[in-house]
Each structure stands twice: as structure tokens, then as C-alpha cells.
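User: Assemble these into one structure.

Assistant: Restating your components, then the assembled model:
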Amino acid sequence: MQERAEATRRFLVEAAAQLFEERGYAGTSISDISARSGRTSGAIYFHFTNKEKLALAVVEATLATWPALIARVRASQAPALEKLVSLSFTVARAFRDDVVVRAGSRLWMERKAIAAPVPGPFTAWIETVTQLLRDAEAEDELAAGVVPETAALAVVYAFFGLHTVSDALDGRARIEERLRELWEVLLMALRAAPDTPALLARAGAPAPAAGTPA
Amino acid sequence: MQERAEATRRFLVEAAAQLFEERGYAGTSISDISARSGRTSGAIYFHFTNKEKLALAVVEATLATWPALIARVRASQAPALEKLVSLSFTVARAFRDDVVVRAGSRLWMERKAIAAPVPGPFTAWIETVTQLLRDAEAEDELAAGVVPETAALAVVYAFFGLHTVSDALDGRARIEERLRELWEVLLMALRAAPDTPALLARAGAPAPAAGTPA
């Protein structure tokens, strides 16, 4: 029974995520979610008490997406900077393709309209990136003068700004190409060695757009 | 009479901005704005037709803040990279201190809840930064391999991400210190010459926080 309740919760979180992603928090009602999911409003209230709790469950499902991705990348044998770049592409694809992540991102943007505090992703990402940059430092891969803690902030700012700007300019259609271009600039600051195109290729970045200088 | 109508519009835009900044678009009504401004709802509707038009007027007032700041910075005799850094601090202070800019920024975040299209700032900022980096290139101040168009995107992503993250972590209290640290990283990628602390001081950045590596 416990397992079945978990499956129902997950099913409702995904149905709610579709609507929150399309219409936002204020534009979505429990009866919309009932219509989309084919469950009664009573069943939804049984699992989530109210719309706010359901929105928080979507945000928590988004935050819960990352630890497994991070663990998988960290377990690989690649150098730390390559792990960092590879992780960034995996996360960017999730923001583009995973409806729960997209909904969590929109709800976080609209967090001031939600009565309960909405947990944000930044502190955890800053820690993850700092740790990968410390590993890169230990591998002698960082340029002289790069401080992992400070550089991690710059990487996190640029990554989240990329999402905001890409969403506004083209609905994230060109997110992978833009992320590649961003790394070409950031790696000029971060890396001791200059073979950025080779690192980007190994980390799963798309090839440069035709006509773009490498 | 024309001048007086303009003054009244500006007064109402500022009163509305205070409320949009505190409560967001959905949380603010014309009668709230009437109470805050001491004008009747009828007078507000005479100038703006509806809440949506008033919100768009706040966003337009925000966007109208930048051209004069940009022109002033561009008219100075400083090298182009110093102009860019200086402009970024001026804009960051406006985001922290100017209620119209803060409200415009919040309304833009909430744009999907507003029926009319809300104009965004990114295309204009990308053009401004690209032009300053082209000037820096002409002054031989860019590192080999830096492409102004691509680097401008990285700068704009990082700058807007800085605002999002700073707002989430500490309500923008440490925005100037964080912006200084961001430039320390970005300038390692962009600059041909390595005297970043001197450039930052000339551009009006705050001194490094005590205990922070320069």
C-alpha cells in the first residue's frame, strides 16, 4: 500500500507539473489538476492537503533530480573540469526536457506568490561546483590565481543566467549551443591548459555551430 | 497641462512600483495603489486604463533608466573594459536601490502571469556589451581568442545570474562584493593585461573583502 501511495503521489506530481509549467502557480487550480490527471479533487487533497503543498512537492522533486546525476558524474574517471562541464550539459538538458524540472523552475521564479518558503537550488550547486573546482586544483588543472570558492560562484551565476536569458530569447531551443559558447569563455579563465575544444568534446558538448570561431 | 499629466503619471508609476515590488503583480490591486498614492481609482484608470497597462509602464520606466547611464559611461575617457565594469556597478546599484527598477525586475520575472507581452532587457544589454567589447578589442585590451559577441553573452548571463542568486541568498545585500568577485574571474578570461585589481579600483568596484585573496 505504501508503494502504491508513492506511485499515486508521483503521478499527481507529474500531472500538476504539466499545469504549473504551462499556466504558473496562480493560473492552476486543484480542479484543473483533477481534470488533467483523471483523479478526483478529494483524492488529490488526500495526498497533498492543498495546492501549496503540491507545488512544494514539485519543487522538491526537482531538487531531488540532482543528487543522482551528480553522483554518476563524480563516479566517472574523467578529470574534474571535464566532470563539471559534463554535469552542466546534463542539467541543461533536464531543464529543457523534463517537465517536473521546468515546472519546479517556474514555481521557484514565482516563489513570492506562494505563501510557504520555496527551497532554492543555489547553495547546493555552489557547494557541488566548489568541490569539483577544488578537485581540479588538486589535479593541477586550474589557472594560477583561480580561487575555487569564487570561481564556483561565477560558474553558478553564469549557468543560471544562461537559463533565464535562453528562456526569454528562444524558449531554451539553443541552450546546448549557448552553454558550449559560455564554457569557451569561462574555461579561458579557469584552465591551466588551453585545449578547450578537446575538453568540450569529451564532456559531451555539441560541436560548434557552423561559421562560429572555435 | 501636458507637463502636469506627465508628473502625475510618473507619481503613479512610482506608487505602483512600491506595491508591485512588495507584493507582486497578482498581489497588487488598483485600490491598493489608490490607497498608497492618495489618488482615486478613477484618476488612476484615467491615466492607465487597467492594472496591466500600469505594470507595463513600470517595466518601460525600468528599461528607460539605462540609455542615459550607458551614454554617460560611454562618453567618459576610460578604456572600454573599464567602462563596462563601471557600467555594471552602476546598474547593480540601481537594481539594489531604485524601487522602479526592482519592481520592473519582479514584474519581468512574473511576466507569464501578465496577459500582455512584457518587454525584456536582454537584447539591448547584449548589444551594449558587445559594442564595448569590440571597442576593447580595437584598443588591444582583449586576450587572444576572445570573440566580442560570444564573450558579451557570457557577461550578460553572469550579470543577470548574479542578480537572481544574490536576491535569493541575501536580498542583494552583498551585490557589490559579489560583482567584484565575478569580474575577478571574468577578467581573467577577457583581458590581455593582468592588472585586474587596478582596473576594478578605477571602475568604482568596492575594495576586496578582508581575508579574500585578491
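The interface with chain A takes residues 24, 26-27, 106, 109-110, 112-113, 120, 122-123, 143, 145-147, 150-151, 153-154, 156-162, 164-165, 168-169, 178, 181-182, 184-186, 188-190, 212-213 of chain B (CB under 8 Å).
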